[in-house]
Amino acid sequence: MAKPMPQEALTPSVRRGLNAPSAGESGKSVAFDPFRERLQQILPPLAVFVLFVGGWELLVQLLRIPPYLVPKPSDIVKAASDNASNLLTSVSTTVMEAVVGFLASVVIGTLMAILLALSKTIEKSVYPYAIILQTIPIVAVAPIIVIWFGAGLNAIVIISFIISFFPILSNTLIGLHSTDRNMTNLFDLYNATKLQTMWRLRIPAALPYIVAGLKISCSMSVIGAIVGEYIAGIGGGKGGLGYAITVATNKLHTPYLFACGLSASLVGICFFLLINRLSRWLLSSWHESEMRH
Amino acid sequence: MSLRSLDENAAAAARSAVPGSGRQLVELNNVDKIYPNGTIAVRQVDLAVSEGEFISFVGPSGCGKSTIFNMIAGLTDHTRGRLSVLGTTPRDARTHNEIAFVFQEHTLLPWTNLLENVTLPLKLRGVPRKAREEEGRRALELVGLGDSVKSLPRQLSGGMKMRVSIARALVSRPKLLLMDEPFGALDEITRQTLQDELLNIWQNDKRMTVLFITHNVFEAVFLSTRVAVMTPRPGKITEIVDIPQPFPREETFRSDPQFGEYVRAVSDAMKFKPAAAGERE
Ligand SMILES: Nc1ncnc2c1ncn2[C@@H]1O[C@H](COP(=O)(O)OP(=O)(O)O)[C@@H](O)[C@H]1O
Ligand SMILES: [Mg+2]
User: Fold this and answer.
1) Which of B94, B120, B152 sits opposite A285 (nearest CB)?
2) What are the residue boundaries of the ABC transmembrane type-1 domain, all occurrences included (chain A) (predicted)?
3) Which residues of B131-155 are buried (b: 16+ CB within 10 A; e: fewer)?
């Protein structure tokens, strides 16, 4: 039908989904939901947001706390707009690094999971090490990466990749192993080759798991990029958010520090929403988790 | 009983006068199946199925009905004895696409439409798209779903999903159709409609043999040329009851006194073994 073949949709569509202009897509989804329902969903968290920001502003003003300790929301906005071009450069640098790290982890993570799922022997011999590697804290690994690959883009992307890789690997692997027994029997009965069963049954059936992995990983990739920049930060005006944070800390420029932190979380949220949309697009026609009622 | 004096192929012959029907299709001699965990699923099973028969298997759950089917389909190996399907090993018969299987669960792929689902066996075999879709439409037509080829499985009722499942089995024009409790999850009316349709399909295809698992004695008697009665611990075929009622079988057969006789014969055979008594569902 109109829905894409899941196997084609696996990796290329992830790329497509991330590069897609988000404005055009969100316009489409509003049309699906009745406006009122949407409003009722948005209103309560919005009210909390306004109360919180207003209270914060008022409290800091009343208590006369200096901005380098706790900046008011207005200080943060001002710091952001005063340094708008710097902030934008930092954000776009971080986004670029995170996207590359994330895409690498999607491609390598799913391919590796497929490889492991195809052969029990490979899985048994390799997967334990993947788990062990995963338990080493990224802040311990990052300096080594910097030593090996030099302080710069390469190291940052690799760190982002490492931290977002495992959720995709493990989720995909679980998904590939959770195919219904009757279904695999059916494919055996019709003499499907291992690859056919993988392509036409196991991968599409694992899509809900894969997408769940993507949702975790996309936020991780942003964190990874910032940690990478923090440790391997590039000098000069082209540094990402992690670098901007270190600089702002050293200067005790707290309002800008807050602005950087908020921007980072905004980037993470945008990533997550994009993946969410992708998930709905992939699964809405057939999987309970994404069905519209 | 006069019924018993009939040749075991008589019922099949009654429905089709095709010469050569009566060729041995499936043969089990002294077959045992012990699962790796030590469960003795079936023991000393003997069975000879001729071409064109419709044999039902009844018995309490756990008596090894599915195990026998899985062995015949080559999905699991037998432990001892001789087992031949279409004159060769089950796996060999399977690779020649002569066997089709319908499971109790509809096992449809939820992400593709009915036509894609039904033509899956052909796709896996590399049949070109055009031929594939032609066969798929034919098979969907057979089960009365010719005009919903583009629907997704989740848009269908349980009965319709089962129809699609049957269409998928028929698409490869199998010589041997194995059905493991296909109608078990359906309501009575849907079940009876599907029984009629299945019999029609089987009668029109003169060379297809059907093996059919059910818990329902009425269903077994209505559909079959013979009913194999099984008992558990260890699983065994204890009796094979002939149902020499000619085909086509009309609805009226269900209320025929003769029908009651057959049902009684099968039920008696099931009760015979004391071991089975506690296991009845
Ligand atoms: N894969 C398996 N491994 C171990 N034991 C099994 C397996 N499949 C079935 N059995 C056992 O074999 C016996 C027969 O099972 P089955 O053929 O499914 O019976 P039925 O279909 O008549 O309900 C049961 O005791 C069941 O627990
Ligand atoms: Mg069973």
Assistant:
1) B152
2) 91-279
3) ebbebbbebbebbebeebbebbbee
Residues in chain A: 293
Beta carbons of B216 and B197 less than 8 angstroms apart: no
CB-based burial of residue B68 (10 Å sphere; 0-12 exposed, 13-18 middle, 19+ buried)?
buried
Residue in the structure block whose two tokens are 């997704």: B152
Distance from Cα B56 to the centre of ligand 2, integer Å: 13
Q: Which residue of A has its CA nearest to B171?
A: A190
Residue B73: name the closest of B42, B104, B102 by CA: B102
Q: What is the pLDDT of residues A184-231, one digit of tens each?
A: 989 988 889 999 999 999 999 999 999 999 999 999 999 999 988 888
**Cα radius of gyration rounded to whole Å, chain A:** 22
**pLDDT > 90: percent of chain B:** 35
Distance between CA B198 and CA A2 in Å, rounded? Answer: 32
Cβ(B77) – ligand 1 distance below 6 Å? no
User: Mind listing the pLDDT tens digit for each residue in A37-80?
Assistant: 888 888 888 999 999 999 999 998 899 888 888 899 999 999 99
What ipTM was estimated for this complex? 0.80
- Identify the CATH assignment for B3-98+174-272 out of 3.40.50.300, 3.30.70.2860, 3.30.420.40, 3.40.50.720: 3.40.50.300
The highest-level CATH class for domain A75-290 is mainly alpha
Domain boundaries, chain B: 3-98+174-272, 111-173
